[in-house]
Design a protein that fits this description.
Blueprint (H helix, E strand, L loop, with lengths): L2 E2 L3 E4 L6 H8 L2 H7 L7 H12 L4 E6 L5 E8 L12 E8 L8 H17 L3 E7 L3 H9 L3 E11 L2 E12 L13
Length: 184
């Protein structure tokens, strides 16, 4: 499945994305903000693409105009997210490569994912979390109508150890409108 916005295409991952993935994910600012170490080779990026990024509701974020890979976005379910309580709740994770920061791509991709989760998956609530020092991600979540819910301790791969995250939430109504927010 592909999700298409004004400027983006969210599509399944391809092995041929490994080179562009490595070019973006080797930047330590990306992994540190997301909690994983920088990629060290194209081979490692291909392995991560095949074993982590591929899967249900996981998408490569690409530019609609030319297909350039700019990031990743995906949904977690109750089976792989500790703070979700029901099968109609989802948590989103995303990152955008540093060369593409500040252009509004993250909220555009996240808004499309929220709409898809609500319309096609019957989502009742959308969650996301970010490390407390990640103000950029906090702003993306706010733009997409999420509100702070609570903090929690999580185990991070990079830098290794326990880190505190802020969990944010947006309730969704069956009619496609957001509760308590201006909507998409």
């Amino acid at each position: 499945m592909e999700l298409i916005t004004a400027r983006l295409v969210l599509r399944p991952w391809l092995d041929s994305d490994a080179t562009e993935l490595y070019a973006l994910a080797r930047n330590p600012r990306i992994g540190t903000a997301a909690g994983w170490p920088p990629h060290e080779s194209e081979e490692q990026s291909l392995d991560i693409l095949r074993n982590v990024l591929r899967g249900p509701e996981q998408y490569a974020v690409t530019l609609r105009c030319d297909g350039t890979l700019i990031g990743a976005i995906g949904l977690k379910t109750i089976d792989d997210c500790d703070y979700l309580e029901g099968p109609d709740e989802y948590s989103a994770g995303y990152w955008i490569g540093a060369p593409h920061w500040g252009k509004g791509y993250a909220p555009e991709a996240f808004s499309a994912l929220i709409e898809h989760a609500q319309r096609d998956l019957g989502a009742r609530a959308m969650y996301a979390d970010h490390f407390l020092d990640n103000a950029q991600s906090h702003r993306v979540m706010e733009k997409c109508g999420l509100k702070p819910l609570r903090t929690a301790e999580v185990s991070a791969l990079y830098p290794e150890g326990s880190r505190e995250v802020l969990i944010m939430q947006r309730e969704l109504r069956p009619d496609g409108e957001a509760n308590g927010s201006s909507g998409l």
